[in-house]
Amino acid sequence: MSLTNALPVDAAKAAKSASHTLATLPTSARNDALTAIHVALSQSKEEILAANARDLTAATKAAEDGKLSLSIVSRLDLGKKGKWEDMLKGILDVRELEDPVTLRTRLDEGLDLERVSCPIGVLLIIFEARPEVIANIASLAIKSGNAAILKGGKESTESFVAISRVISAALEATVVPNTAIQLVTTRDVIPQLLALDQYIDLVIPRGSNELVRYIKSSTKIPVLGHADGICSIYLEHTADPEMAVRVIVDSKTSYPAACNSVETLLVETASLETLLPPVAEALLAKGVSLRCDASSKKALTAKLSLHSSVILQDADESDFDTEHLSLTLAIKTVSTVTEAISHINIHGSHHTDAIITSSSPLAEQFMSSVDSAGVFWNTSTRMADGMRFGFGTEVGISTNKIHARGPVGLEGLMIYKYKIRGGGQITAEYGEGSGQRSFKHEKLLF
Amino acid sequence: MSLTNALPVDAAKAAKSASHTLATLPTSARNDALTAIHVALSQSKEEILAANARDLTAATKAAEDGKLSLSIVSRLDLGKKGKWEDMLKGILDVRELEDPVTLRTRLDEGLDLERVSCPIGVLLIIFEARPEVIANIASLAIKSGNAAILKGGKESTESFVAISRVISAALEATVVPNTAIQLVTTRDVIPQLLALDQYIDLVIPRGSNELVRYIKSSTKIPVLGHADGICSIYLEHTADPEMAVRVIVDSKTSYPAACNSVETLLVETASLETLLPPVAEALLAKGVSLRCDASSKKALTAKLSLHSSVILQDADESDFDTEHLSLTLAIKTVSTVTEAISHINIHGSHHTDAIITSSSPLAEQFMSSVDSAGVFWNTSTRMADGMRFGFGTEVGISTNKIHARGPVGLEGLMIYKYKIRGGGQITAEYGEGSGQRSFKHEKLLF
């Protein structure tokens, strides 16, 4: 990894060249580099967390001055319970991943087709806060044989520089080229990088929806990611009440700044007086602001004590199209699963949506018909995560309809090529005519 | 299928709505629709070929007047040997394909993750000639559960209209919505269609590189395809002479207008006087114009009879960056496999490249290092084809580095979603802390 002040075009050229080297390194060499990074980061915990604390102090002040959102401050904190450990564990998990499966077909005797996975080439990762992203991405890029250019947000500069120095020193002792992972710290280079489609093969933005929208509209390079995370939960009347409380509270409060947190609760009319009150009480006890439509407000006001009811807010239409990223939840009443599905397909962001019900047919209908990357039954929307899915770590969560959808791990950073090993076969000898050969198309095992 | 003069936005909206219906139809219903199309097309062969003959007459005249390239005329001909049969066989092959494999992981006891493939949504297919594309695409779209909007070139209007009428009538008797496949025949609608990124999920252009380049630079919708097909063959000195002749002649002459035909022959210096002369003689006998660099021209002039040598042409630099799409082949001398790889990675179009050699290590080096969708050893570049690969048929050949690369069949029209079936599990109960659970990440069989 190198910290570069090079011109974007030179950084991109160097990355392209490094990607060719990286693509031909054996798995063992790439795994050794990951081990080296893990050891080095473990040994430098104190120094990196100190740098992160400096970022956090500055960001907290900026937030107090109204110049930065609290959700960014929250994402910035590398000392947050479990975050450092998850980051380190992610590197080892990635190291253990196997190369994605390929396809093999015998086209004819002595004519074998093989599909082998290979790296995409050069990735451009643009991120705002979340310092752990740098370790996640560096390990996934090295494991998959891609070169990467990382451009971090100014809020987390100290953390990034500290982490990248450690990774850079660790890579020195390996065969991975130093230019394979480059951290660009110069300002205002994003437009220049986005124009380099001859060198950069994929852009992965991680940050606010403004950032992602800007990037998507400013480049011809394919962009992998999501702008919004407007996730919904549909609370059906046969749901187990205790389960409903657990799952909804976890989905809303375990990390409100995350894109997989729930933003809208769709309550079946038949659940308004039975399931909604205990759910609302648990949420209010956790400090969640509830923005209710008329029916849910009426039901809650009747059921809850006056003390609680005074803090119920009225939802307006825009609340159902908003990613609050904070302890705010919009509540809407729907009469059927069909209405819930339709609401989610129109107002959601095709990220992750869940149903809580004890009816298997309703759950299956919901999961088939909701057009989202994640469709969950009786579990938290926050399960949508590469680490929880077993991908080691993730480069982000995609709401794209092509290439990779949902949490993107190693597989999303790979493409494939087709190899054929033949013995002089030509196309003119195959066909339907007399004396012509037919393809066998026999699947071969790996 | 409907032939529509509707506004592009209305066609796109109708397609989106049909895609939701199509996505929930069972496999049997989609297969029945393919059977109906196959029967109907078989019965209407005469009528469709007559329409195609009218297109062909007009195009031939336009070509004579210099208004249309001969390669377009060649692609237009549905009566060309085997083309009609291949088109019909493609429909049945697609019907027999199985839904792409999914992933299943037990995250924890009673918490199962499943990745299921699902259609992308709405495809926009823009094509110039090649009337068979309409049957290929319609069958792949229906099989995969995508809706499709087809916009054909004016050269093949008669053929398209004839084919789409037959398919439309066949679909009437099935449960596939009529708006699932729409043929847009109004002119000048392409810019409007390319702006509809809220309804259209993927654009697949099939036509000249000018068309593809225009489309890629005019839309935010992902584009799948290739602009150029500059394919090369590297002739190494240990190649079997008879095999070299067979493979190179097939790669150049079996269908010169195809994107997978060879355009550049890279001859190892050590092959100049041994292998090149018989190859060149065979090509010249088939009417191929050879554009030679100085070394290859010198070698050929010395070896071949004067009669042949007078028709050797001099190559200029642009010949190695040109897709001739005709009986023209550029010949360049290189000293090593490394020089051949480097030439291909710089001048090729990352489509399909082949090596002819009897050395397995050289072949493996070539296939690993050439950054192309197809890398072949001892077989024709024209093997790069969805039907030959066993995909039934193809929507095109992609040189993209994401989603789908090489011949794109059913799998390239699918994406996936993640389903989780749980029992109330929440993220807060998992972690490294005491009393917390760990994910099992146990792979399940299908």
UniProtKB/TrEMBL annotation, chains A, B:
The enzyme class is oxidoreductase
Superkingdom: Eukaryota
Please give the CDD domains that the UniProt record associates with this protein: ALDH_F18-19_ProA-GPR
Q: What is its EC number?
A: 1.2.1.41
Tell me the route in metabolism or biology where this protein functions: Amino-acid biosynthesis; L-proline biosynthesis; L-glutamate 5-semialdehyde from L-glutamate: step 2/2
- UniProt keyword annotations, A-Z: Amino-acid biosynthesis, NADP, Oxidoreductase, Proline biosynthesis
Q: Name the InterPro entries for this protein.
A: Ald_DH/histidinol_DH (IPR016161), Ald_DH_C (IPR016163), Ald_DH_N (IPR016162), Aldehyde_DH_dom (IPR015590), G-glutamylP_reductase_CS (IPR020593), Glu-5-SA_DH (IPR012134), GPR_dom (IPR000965)
GO MF, any single term: NADP binding
- Which residue intervals define the domain Aldehyde dehydrogenase in the entry? 10-282
Under catalytic activity, the entry for this protein gives: L-glutamate 5-semialdehyde + phosphate + NADP(+) = L-glutamyl 5-phosphate + NADPH + H(+)
One example of a Gene Ontology biological process annotation: L-proline biosynthetic process
Keyword Oxidoreductase in record: yes
Tell me yes or no: is Flavoprotein among this UniProt entry's keywords: no
Q: Which HAMAP family match?
A: ProA
> Which protein family is named in the record?
Belongs to the gamma-glutamyl phosphate reductase family.
Report the function annotation for this chain.
Answer: Catalyzes the NADPH dependent reduction of L-gamma-glutamyl 5-phosphate into L-glutamate 5-semialdehyde and phosphate. The product spontaneously undergoes cyclization to form 1-pyrroline-5-carboxylate.
Name of the featured protein: glutamate-5-semialdehyde dehydrogenase
Organism source for this protein?
Lachnellula occidentalis
Recite the lineage of the species: Eukaryota, Fungi, Dikarya, Ascomycota, Pezizomycotina
